[in-house]
Amino acid sequence: MSIAKKEYKRITTKTLVDMKKKGEKISMLTAYDFTMAKIVDSAGIDVILVGDSASNVMAGHETTLPITLDQMIYHAASVVRAIERSLVVVDLPFGSYQSDPKEALRSAIRIMKESGGHAVKLEGGKEIKESVKRILNAGIPVMGHLGLTPQSIYKFGTYTVRAKEEEEADKLIEDALLLERIGCFAIVLEKVPAKLAQQVAEKISIPVIGIGAGNGVDGQVLVLHDMIGMTHEFNPRFLRRYLDLYTDMKNAFTQYSRDVKSGDFPNESEQY
After folding, report:
1. Is the separation of the CB atoms in 178 and 204 below 8 Å?
2. 202 in active site
3. Is 264 assigned a ligand-binding role in the annotation?
4. HSE of 52 in the Cβ direction (CA atoms, 13 Å)?
5. Is 241 exposed, middle or buried (CB count within 10 Å of its CB: 0-12, 13-18, 19+)?
6. pTM of the prediction?
7. Is 91 annotated as a binding residue?
8. Are residues 174 and 259 located together in one domain of the fold?
9. Spatial separation of the C-alpha atoms in residues 157 and 195, rounded to whole Å
10. Within 13 Å and on the Cβ side, how many CA atoms surround 30?
11. Which amino acid positions bind 3-methyl-2-oxobutanoate, per UniProt (predicted)?
12. Is residue 77 located within the same domain as residue 172?
């Protein structure tokens, strides 16, 4: 049972662990630019994820794979300049950590030094253990990511729910325990059965943040552009749209164009 939200002056990795101990749910949203991040931070969101989903919603790519480390640093630095309270977690992009733990560390160091982010997030479990350990040994906080891992989309071939079968579910639990044991401060579980996600959250002491993983976890994350309705083609079951900005913005732009073409804008009070 969640308790009333405490006002935290600044969210840290320790804050999140304490929130889990107290039964306080953790709110997390993505952001990729200064203006949006400033609004998200002022709304009291606990964690801002500078996600590699920027590849989709900001750059128009079909997958998260094309976005580069330099581009992630650009987005993260823009977000960090807006923040007063939220913890900023930055995705390590595809190709920057999987093959070589030394490269993983170099990538994480660049993100921390050049963007000012507070932590990094990596997709995978046992397969990337050495990369995670090397980053952690350098004093950089790491958030894990299990279940549906979008950077492996061509391996899976689909964005369907993961870990429905016993073998994959057992591996997910083992990977979550491993990530906790080696020192991750939290784990994102994406698109897995709710019962499994709750089981993981109850087995480990670090926070489990869900996206399409039910309500039995310690917090939730959504992609900002999806939840405010700026995107409208993406309609998974787990998505709740809090606004319909696609329609509102399109209507506003249409009206502006009409006003310009008719000579109505600017009127006398809107000029010098």
Report:
1. no
2. no
3. no
4. 24
5. middle
6. 0.93
7. yes
8. no
9. 24
10. 23
11. 52-53, 91, 121
12. yes
Q: Give residue 149's pLDDT.
A: 84
Hey, which residues does 147 pair with through a beta bridge?
A: 190
State which residues form the domain around 256: 243-272
The answer to whether residues 79 and 209 belong to one domain is yes
Q: 3-state class of 6 per DSSP? A: coil
Count of structural domains within the chain = 2
For residue 167, give the H/E element and its range: helix 166-182
255 and 167 in a single domain? The answer is no
- Token pair 């926070």: residue: 207
pLDDT for position 5: 55
Q: Which amino acid is at 168?
A: E
Considering the domain architecture, whether residues 122 and 249 belong to the same structural domain is answered as: no
Residue 72 pLDDT exceeds 60: yes
Cβ count near 54 (within 10 Å): 25
Whether residue 78 is annotated as binding a ligand: the answer is: no
Task: Say which of 174, 190, 268, 270 is annotated catalytic.
Answer: 190
CATH number at residue 21: 3.20.20.60
The annotation status of 42 as a binding-site residue, yes or no, is: no
What six digits make up the tokens of 194? 């709710």
Q: What is the pLDDT of residue 163?
A: 73
Tell me: the pLDDT tens digits for 16-49? Answer: 999 999 999 999 999 999 999 999 999 999 999 9
Both 236 and 265 in one domain: the answer is no
Cα 81–Cα 136–Cα 122 angle in degrees, nearest 5 = 70
